[in-house]
Amino acid sequence: RVHKLVLNCCVGESGDRLTRASRVLEQLTGQQPILSKSRLTIRTFGIRRNEKISCHVTVRGDKAEEILERGLKGKEDELRSRNFFDTGNFGF
Predict the structure, then answer these.
(1) CA of 42: how far to CAs of 12, 37, 39, 48, in Å?
(2) 57: helix, strand or coil
(3) R_g over Cα of the chain
(4) With 80 as the cut, is the pLDDT of residue 32 above it?
(5) CA–CA distance from 50 to each of 3, 35, 71 (Å)?
(6) Using one digit for the tens of pLDDT, what is the confidence trace for 40-84?
(7) Is 13:38 a contact under the CB 8 Å cutoff?
(8) Fewer Cβ neighbours under 10 Å: the N or C end of the chain?
(9) How confident is residue 3, by pLDDT bands cut at 50, 70 and 90?
């Protein structure tokens, strides 16, 4: 049973790439993504504090299971052991 599915897309910069990433998440889920800001300034990465660098969507219920099934089909229903975390979460 899936309680919730969080789709996260971190592009590391604001602007056109972030807009495209949020559009992709919106097309996948049908929901408006939330933009996340950076906490710190990291000069080597060119990231400033409070700059919008990522977007995420939380999906629950039947829609979450449907999206997860479509994602696993793309990975041919096979995940490596390093995709799983000790907390019960996984990513791919």
Answers:
(1) 11, 13, 9, 6
(2) strand
(3) 15
(4) yes
(5) 30, 11, 31
(6) 998 998 889 989 999 999 999 888 888 888 877 766 677 777 777
(7) no
(8) N
(9) confident
Residues 5/68, Cβ–Cβ less than 8 Å = yes
Could you give the angle at which helices 62-74 and 16-29 cross, rounded to 10 degrees? 110
Alpha-carbon separation of residue 26 from 2, 30, 71, 89 (angstroms)? 20, 5, 15, 23
Pairing of strands 52-60, 34-37: antiparallel
Contact 78, 92 (CB under 8 A): no
| pTM, rounded to two decimals | 0.76
Phi, psi at residue 66, to the nearest 5°? -65, -45
Query: For residues 28 and 64, what is the distance between their CA atoms, to the nearest angstrom?
Result: 11
**Can you list the alpha helix ranges (DSSP code H) found in 1-92?**
16-29, 62-74
